C-alpha cells in the first residue's frame, strides 16, 4: 500500500480527516436522534404517522436513491470490488430517513446510519486525493471504523469491527494501525460534543464458579440460534415484500399500516425505536422471554418493509433481554447474562466475535472478558452462514467449521 515513508503523513492526515468528519456527523446524528426519541415518547400518538413516513422514505429512495438503497451492503460490495465513489447523497438520505423512522416509532437501530455516514464521507476523499483501488478499500475500511466507534463510544471495537466485518480481506498491518487511529479520532471528536452514551451497569462479581464457563458456552449457543433466527427473519420479510409488492414505495406504507395496528391493539410502546430503557432495565430486572422475540419480529419487519436505521441496537435489546430472561435457570448474575447477550447475539448476526468481545469488555469491564468471549465465539459458530449483511462473505474459521461439523 505504501511505497515510501512519504505516504505515511498523507494517510495520517486522511485518517484524522475521516475520523473527525465522521465523529462530527455521528454527534449531529446522535443529538438529533435523542431529541426525536424524547419527542416521540412525549407524543406517542405519532405512531399513526408510520404509513406517511413509509411513503416519504419509499418515494425518496425509489426516485432519488436507487443506487444507494442497498446501504451497508453497497459499502461491502464496493470494498470487495471497487467501482465508483459512493454518492454523497447517501449521507443526508440515511440521516433523515433514520430520524423519520424513529420519530414515528419504527423498531430500528443506528449503526447502519453511522457506518453509511462514515463511509460516504470517507469515500469523498477520492475526489481530492488520487488513490489506487486497494487504497480506496482502506478508505472504506476507515469509514466503517469511524462510524461504528463514534456512534457507540467504543473505539477498540469500532476498529476491530471494520477489519473483521470485511473478513480481513487484503487488510495490511498498516491499514490495521490506521483503522485504530481513525476510530480514536472519531471517538474523541464525539467526546467533545454534547453527546452522552448510555451506561449499562454490570454488578461487580462477588464470587465466580468454574461452572460459569460451561454455562457461558451454553448461553453462547442459544445466542447464536437467536442471531440465526434474526438474520433469516429480516431476509425473509425483505424477500416477501419484494416478491408480493412490486412497487417499492408501497412496501413501507403497508408495513407502516401493519405496525400501526400492532401499537394500537397492543398499547405497548417499549419495542418502538431503540428501546434503550428496556435494555437498561434488563440488567437489573428479569425480562420476559417474549420481549426478545417481539423485538426481533418488529425490527425484522420494520427494516424488511423498507424503513431505515440499523440492526445492531435492536440486537443489543434482543440479546440483553434474552440474557435477563434466562437468569432464572442459568446460575449466573443477571447483569452478567444481560451483558453477555448484549454482544453475543450481535456477534452471531454480524460474524464479528473479536470485535464484539472487545466491545463487551469496553462497555462492561475487562474482568468479565472470559465469559463475554466464550459467549461471543460460540454464538458466532452457531449462527449459520448468512448474517444481517447479505454482501458479507463467509471466510476463515467459521466457513471451515460450518462445512465440517454443521
TrEMBL record:
Cell compartments where the protein resides: Membrane
Protein name: H+/Cl-antiporter ClcA
Stored SUPFAM superfamilies: Clc chloride channel
TM segment ranges: 12-35, 47-65, 138-163, 175-197, 209-230, 250-267, 328-349, 369-389
Main location: membrane
Keywords of the record: Membrane, Transmembrane, Transmembrane helix
Domain of life: Bacteria
InterPro entries from the UniProt entry: Cl-channel_core, ClC, ClC-type_chloride_channel
GO cellular component, one term: membrane
GO molecular function: chloride transmembrane transporter activity
Organism of origin: Flavobacterium aciduliphilum
Topological type in the membrane: Multi-pass membrane protein
Amino acid at each position: 500500500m505504501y511505497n515510501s515513508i512519504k505516504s505515511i503523513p498523507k494517510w495520517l492526515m486522511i485518517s484524522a480527516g475521516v475520523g473527525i468528519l465522521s465523529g462530527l456527523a455521528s454527534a449531529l446524528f446522535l443529538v438529533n436522534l435523542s431529541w426525536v426519541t424524547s419527542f416521540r415518547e412525549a407524543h406517542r400518538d405519532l405512531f399513526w404517522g408510520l404509513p406517511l413516513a413509509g411513503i416519504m422514505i419509499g418515494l425518496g429512495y425509489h426516485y432519488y436513491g436507487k443506487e444507494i438503497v442497498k446501504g451497508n451492503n453497497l459499502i461491502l460490495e464496493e470494498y470487495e470490488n471497487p467501482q465508483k465513489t459512493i454518492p454523497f447523497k447517501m449521507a443526508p438520505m440515511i440521516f433523515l430517513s433514520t430520524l423519520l423512522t424513529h420519530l414515528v416509532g419504527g423498531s430500528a437501530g443506528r449503526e447502519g446510519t453511522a457506518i453509511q455516514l462514515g463511509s460516504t464521507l470517507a469515500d469523498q476523499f477520492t475526489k481530492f486525493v488520487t488513490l489506487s483501488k486497494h487504497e480506496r478499500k482502506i478508505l472504506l475500511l476507515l469509514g466503517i471504523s469511524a462510524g461504528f466507534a463514534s456512534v457507540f463510544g467504543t473505539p477498540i471495537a469500532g476498529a476491530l469491527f471494520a477489519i473483521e466485518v470485511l473478513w480481513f480481506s487484503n487488510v495490511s498491518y498498516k491499514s490495521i494501525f490506521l483503522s485504530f487511529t481513525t476510530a480514536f479520532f472519531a471517538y474523541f471528536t464525539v467526546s467533545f460534543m454534547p453527546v452522552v452514551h448510555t451506561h449499562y451497569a454490570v454488578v461487580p462479581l462477588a464470587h465466580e464458579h468454574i461452572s460459569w464457563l460451561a454455562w457461558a458456552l451454553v448461553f453462547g449457543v442459544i445466542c447464536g440460534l437467536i442471531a440465526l433466527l434474526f438474520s433469516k427473519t429480516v431476509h425473509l420479510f425483505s424477500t416477501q415484500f419484494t416478491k408480493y409488492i412490486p412497487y417499492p414505495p408501497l412496501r413501507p406504507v403497508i408495513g407502516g399500516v401493519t405496525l400501526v395496528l400492532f401499537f394500537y391493539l397492543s398499547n405497548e410502546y417499549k419495542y418502538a425505536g431503540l428501546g434503550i430503557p428496556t435494555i437498561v432495565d434488563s440488567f437489573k430486572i428479569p425480562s420476559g422471554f417474549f420481549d426478545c422475540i417481539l423485538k426481533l419480529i418488529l425490527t425484522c419487519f420494520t427494516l424488511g418493509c423498507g424503513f431505515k436505521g440499523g440492526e445492531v441496537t435492536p440486537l443489543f435489546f434482543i440479546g440483553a433481554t434474552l440474557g435477563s430472561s434466562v437468569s432464572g435457570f442459568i446460575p449466573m448474575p443477571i447483569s452478567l447474562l444481560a451483558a453477555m447477550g448484549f454482544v453475543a447475539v450481535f456477534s452471531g448476526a454480524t460474524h464479528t466475535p473479536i470485535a464484539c468481545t472487545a466491545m463487551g469488555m469496553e462497555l462492561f469491564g475487562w474482568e468479565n472478558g472470559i465469559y463475554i468471549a466464550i459467549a461471543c465465539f460460540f454464538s458466532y459458530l452457531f449462527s449459520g452462514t448468512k448474517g444481517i449483511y447479505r454482501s458479507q462473505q463467509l471466510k476463515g474459521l467459521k466457513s471451515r467449521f460450518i462445512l465440517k461439523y454443521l
